[in-house]
């Protein structure tokens, strides 16, 4: 099966205007292999329970959570899983830019208008990967994400897809992520070397523990490679200690 549908292809110009989707544009690149390793390690962390909903977040802004979640979502789709990728950052959404999609409808319109989510799904970018953008930024993101409509929506898509991935705001910025973390199967914390503060990461973990979220591990990104792998950074996956 080809990586891209013929209806819409991701051009290099489109990708460069947003987050670089190295896993889609250069699947044989060493960085793409690192994202596949992250995917595999997350899969291994679910030996005792099936992970259907996974949330990617960070302690603060500019740590690369959207870059990581986008690329890992692509690797799961490339593996043949039916994946739904949701932009649940209703304050600073990015996925519509990353994938070159309109954002007039999305998660916010689903929740506000009780709209059928099938009508806003984009599934013509990468095989096996469906995307729901954030939609217009609402005045009450936390209330929407904590609503019964959000819980019912997650239950519905969980039944339809092999894996549902959510990109959400940083934990220390707003309450949105702490709220939704309690309603997913697993949380991955993205930590950017040289940006994340130890105290901030520790506090982020405490917030997840307070709501009994299942912290699967962390992704350390922006690690400078001694070998100079073209992108100048690397990714590693591990467990918080």
UniProtKB/TrEMBL annotation:
Q: Which residues form the AAA domain?
A: 63-193
What molecular functions are annotated in GO for this chain? ATP binding; identical protein binding; non-membrane spanning protein tyrosine kinase activity
CDD domains cross-referenced by the UniProt entry:
BY-kinase
* Gene Ontology process terms (BP): capsule polysaccharide biosynthetic process
Its EC top class is transferase
**Pfam families associated with the record:** AAA_31
**What are the record keywords, sorted?**
ATP-binding, Capsule biogenesis/degradation, Exopolysaccharide synthesis, Kinase, Nucleotide-binding, Transferase, Tyrosine-protein kinase
Q: Which pathway does it operate in?
A: Capsule biogenesis; capsule polysaccharide biosynthesis
> According to the UniProt entry, what is the EC number of this protein?
2.7.10.2
Q: Catalyses which reaction?
A: L-tyrosyl-[protein] + ATP = O-phospho-L-tyrosyl-[protein] + ADP + H(+)
Would you tell me the Gene Ontology cellular component terms? plasma membrane
Member of which family?
Belongs to the CpsD/CapB family.
The protein's role, per its UniProt record: Involved in the regulation of capsular polysaccharide biosynthesis. Autophosphorylation of CpsD attenuates its activity and reduces the level of encapsulation. May be part of a complex that directs the coordinated polymerization and export to the cell surface of the capsular polysaccharide.
Q: What is this protein called?
A: Tyrosine-protein kinase CpsD
| Organism for this UniProt entry | Secundilactobacillus folii
Highest classification ranks of the organism: Bacteria, Bacillati, Bacillota, Bacilli, Lactobacillales
């Amino acid at each position: 099966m080809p990586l891209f549908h013929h209806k819409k292809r991701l051009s290099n110009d489109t990708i460069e205007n947003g987050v670089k989707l190295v896993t889609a544009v250069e699947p044989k690149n060493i960085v793409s292999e690192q994202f596949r390793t992250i995917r595999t390690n997350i899969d291994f962390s679910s030996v005792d329970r099936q992970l259907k909903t996974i949330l990617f977040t960070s302690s603060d802004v500019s740590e690369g959570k959207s870059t990581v979640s986008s690329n890992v979502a692509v690797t799961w789709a490339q593996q043949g899983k039916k994946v739904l990728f949701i932009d649940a950052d209703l304050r600073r959404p990015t996925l519509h830019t990353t994938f070159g999609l309109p954002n007039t409808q999305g998660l916010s319109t689903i929740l506000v208008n009780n709209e059928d989510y099938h009508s806003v799904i984009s599934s013509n970018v990468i095989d096996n990967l469906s995307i729901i953008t954030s939609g217009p930024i609402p005045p009450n993101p936390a209330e929407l994400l904590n609503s019964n409509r959000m819980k019912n929506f997650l239950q519905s898509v969980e039944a339809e897809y092999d894996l549902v991935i959510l990109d959400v705001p940083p934990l220390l910025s707003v309450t949105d992520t702490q709220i939704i973390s309690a309603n997913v199967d697993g949380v991955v914390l993205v930590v950017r070397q040289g940006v994340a503060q130890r105290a901030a990461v520790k506090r982020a973990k405490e917030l997840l523990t307070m709501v009994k979220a299942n912290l699967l591990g962390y992704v350390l990104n922006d690690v400078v490679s001694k070998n100079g792998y073209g992108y100048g950074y690397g990714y590693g996956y591990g467990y918080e200690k």
